[in-house]
Every structure is written in structure tokens, then in C-alpha cells.
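[09:14] KT: can someone run the structure on this one? pasting the chain below
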Amino acid sequence: MRVTTVVIGAGHAGLAMSWSLARRSIDHVVLERGEVANSWRTERWDSLRLLTPNWQSRLPGYGYQGSDPDGFRTMRETIDFIERYAGVIAAPIRTHTNVTSVRNSGEGYDVATDQGVWKCQAVVLATGACNIPLVPALAEAIPSTIGTLTPMQYRNPGQLEAGGVLVVGASATGIQIADEIHRSGRPVTLAVGEHVRVPRVYRGRDIQWWMDAAGVLNERYDEIDDIGRARNVPSLQLAGSDDRWTLDLNSLTAIGVKHIGRLAGINDGKALFSGSLRNQCALADLKMNRLLDTIDEWAAAHGLDSEVSPKQRFAPTKVEASPPLGIDLKRGGIRTIIWATGFRPDYSWLDVPVLDRKGRVRHDGGVVDAPGMYLMGIPFLRRRKSSLIDGAADDARDLSAHLAAYLNQRSAVPHSAPQLLSR
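[09:31] RB: done, C-alpha cells below
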């Protein structure tokens, strides 16, 4: 089977690229291992809602059409939205087609699947950044009496044994799971490392509205001093809810969740924690206030001060005077550990030498270090919003332009590749 471009992955990023390729009359196929929006269907817990307001679900040629623009979609609603988009744009999707390898053929790429081999000139990797949970090596030392789950395995508190729960990681996933489990009646301890604190609502408007309007989300990868660091910043401590309440360490403290430092090791059944909790929280507070300063400056410069609520600053994160540095896991207080420690992409099927030592694709703003190969849907790919549904349109527009130029130059001068325009 031959086609000009193969897009791997039929989530929002792959579909946005499909729309952009179709607009440029580039024939292509979208290969999906399961159904459309497969990760949303199979790798999320029951109560999860999008962290971004409904109005922010903007894909190329399509947007929110309901009556609750400031609400937050459930997973079922998110799946339906992406499915409808696939239908509206008539994307050429092959579902239940598992890619087993991608190899350089000398004239392009051979994309092998369990349904046959596709020969193409260009490939777009749109399989996402959250395919495999990151579980630290120290997990091997957990006593066998302790149950462990990753966020991909967790569905609801009912699947947990009675007793205490240790949630490791305090970004969006960790704080939401900690909140839900504690409200189910189980005592929760949250191990806190680096995190990013923001209010859900600031000066009467959603924090995402401010970051969008003030241009924070549009900040480009080539404007950042340390893009490698920026791409590894934890997700915002946010939750989507009907009342738009702020979920952070202080709100968790208020309901009885105990906070402890970063999990540093396990020795003879005892979990050992870093003493840096206070410093981590102070740094998160500092960064939040810097963001709010940026928003305040933008609001003043654009004459919004009279239209929104007054400036405000939030109470510092509360940290107990001497947080414990260890928990004896053998004494029975903790019955379950949930590893909310992040994710990594899975490129085990990619047989092209473009991976760094951490298994991530080497690229420049989505242009992979291999002619005719592109990347979509990872954090800060080309803009700060790249990992959001709302970020796919701009990235797909830029990268499809580069892909089209690559194909044109390839037909004129073999093996040449265009330079990606910075603007």
C-alpha cells in the first residue's frame, strides 16, 4: 500500500494534522491501534474531567458548540467531541491497525502494521507523550503486602483495599486522585516534589482565559532559554469542576490530606522522604505570583482593570513545622501506593535512529532529526499550549507547511529538506 504521508495516532493531534494535510491536498492515512481517541477511552480514571474549559477545545475547522463554554468535559464527552471531529473532517482513519515498526526504506519510510505495510514519503508521529507511566526504580523495594497502581490502572476508590493510601506526585494527576480517594474515607498521604501552583479562577476569570489572552500559552519554543527544562515542567495543579474551585495543597490540607516531601528511597520497608517540602512549596508560590504579575501587567496595559475583579494574592502553601522524613510501610498504615510520577512516550516500534538516551524523539519544534518525519502532541512542541487540545491547530499548521515544502523539494532535488520558518 502506498500513500504520501502516514499519520500514526487518531487522537486530537493526529486528527488536527489530518485536517491540515487535507487542506494542502496531501494524500494520507491515519493509523490508530484502537478506536478514535483510544487513550481517552482506555487510560483515564472514571471521574477525570478536562483541565481546560470547553471553549478552549478548539481544533482546526471545529470548536465547542454547546451551551456551557465555561464548563469542563467529562471523559465520555471528550471522546464524543473527538469522534465528531473525525467525522466532520472525514479523516481517512484505519482503526484497529497496530503499527509494529517504522523503517527508512531509502526512498521514504516503510510503516509496518498488523494489517500490512504502508510505503510513504513522510511520517507524522502523533501517538502522544503519555503512553507509559513513569514508575521509579525504588518501587521494586516496596513490601509485597502493599498494593501499587499507576494512574492508567486506577479507576476509582472502590478498587482499593481499605486503609491508608500514599500518592506519590503532586501535579494535576496526583492532587486529583488524592482528593478523590481521601473523600472516599481513606486516609491519604501525598508525597510532594516539584509542582506548579495556580488558582482556577483569578480576578473573576478562568486562569486559562488569562494565559490565553495574555499570550502565555502562545509562547514559542524558540523564545525559551532552556527549552529542555520547559518541556519537563510538571503539569499545572488544576482540576475541572462545575464550581471551578481551586484544588491545590492548601485545599487538600483543609480536608485532612497529609503532605510529605519527595519520595527519595525505600530501605528495609521504610519509605524515606526528602526534607525539601518547604522549599518546593515556596518555589511554587513564587512562580505562581510571577504569573499573576504577568497577568496583572497585561490587564492594566489593555484597559481591563475596571472590567475585572481587583488584584489578589493567595495565602502561601501551608507546611507543617517538621514534616516526617519516613513511613514504616510494614506497620500496616499504608495499604496502597499510587505512582502519579509522570509518563513517557512509547516509541518501541520506531526503528529509525532519532531517539535520545531517554527514549525521546530528537526534534526541532516538531521537525524530527530524520527527513520527512514529524512529531505532534507533546509538551511545548512549538508552543506552551502544544499538549492541550487547543494547541494542536497551530502546530499542525506550521508542521504541515514544512511537510509540504519538504515534499516539493524532494520531488525537485532528492534528499533536500526545507528549513522551518521561525514565524
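[09:33] KT: thanks! The chain has nine helices and 24 strands.
[09:34] RB: yep, looked fine to me
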